[in-house]
Amino acid sequence: MPLRLDPTFADALANRERPLIGLWVVSGSPLVAEIFAGSGVDWLLIDMEHSSNSLESVLHQLQVAAAYPISPVVRVPYGDDVSLKQVLDIGAQNVLVPMVNNAEQARAVVSAVRYAPRGVRGVGSALSRSARWNRVDGYLQNADDHVSLFVQIESAEAVENAAEIAAVDGVDGVFVGPSDLAASMGLLGQQSHPDVVAAVTRTFQAVKAAGKPVGVNAFDPQQAEQYMNDGAAFVAVAADVSVLARGSEALAARFIPATDAEQRTSY
């Protein structure tokens, strides 16, 4: 019997009744990915840009996440044809490309996730999990329906080009990264600076005007709520390593005298 693939993250966003809440998985652990997948959030961001995640570890995380009603999104380290082809072939249906600064770059990554004649994605469906080894009926003909592409705006240049980036056919949504955006504005480490927040909300307006959903990374709960009020359709609110770091620190602070804790962390 032919197999059917899950709806994409773009489908989930189109049918949403509220902002979709997500968590990052950067540890490379399939076990942690499964714990997060069953937590009740709407989507996971499996990151290959700022982590030790490999194709094999991403594959394992996609496999465990498949058992849960959640949308896994894979962020590639760079928007090149090879990285995107490999991630798609291991079964990622939703991909996020970092550091897209203009419409030309956006069109290039759209081409990378589409088969010819609409793009340059290499054909390997019989060999790959993407088409479940050709068990998905009509996968090649309907591949565009099985893939959603999101691009990341995270520079001052990209903010200025947000409307043109969002308008590119084949871009399903835009994700704003305040950390790198702040750095590009000369405000390194100041994601909540009023000028950075203003640039984020200006990007929201441009993307929404183009008819595309816009999301944002916001690990501060108050900031996340504000961005949702400002129109964010999807928000990443924490990462596995940050949850572990802050949670373990809170436990240590509760049970260990401050002087002992300082000595333990001073080296």
Model description:
The chain has 267 residues and is an alpha/beta fold. It has an eight-stranded parallel β-barrel with strand order 1-2-3-4-5-6-7-8, surrounded by seven helices. The protein has one domain (9-148, 216-265): Alpha-Beta Barrel (TIM Barrel), CATH 3.20.20. Helix 2 (30-37) packs parallel to helix 3. The protein is globular, with a radius of gyration of 19 Å. Helices cover 41% and strands 15% of the residues. The chain has helices at residues 9-14, 30-37, 55-65, 81-89, 103-112, 156-160, 162-166, 178-184, 194-209, 221-229, 240-255, 258-265, and strands at residues 20-25, 43-47, 71-75, 94-97, 148-153, 173-176, 214-217, 234-239. Helix 10 links the parallel strand 7 (214-217) and strand 8 (234-239). The termini are far apart.
What does this entry show, briefly?
With 267 residues, the chain is α/β, with parallel strands linked by helices. It has a single domain, classed as Phosphoenolpyruvate-binding domains (TIM Barrel, Alpha-Beta Barrel). The chain has 12 helices and 8 strands.
List its traits.
267 residues; alpha/beta; TIM Barrel; eight-stranded parallel beta barrel; 41% helix
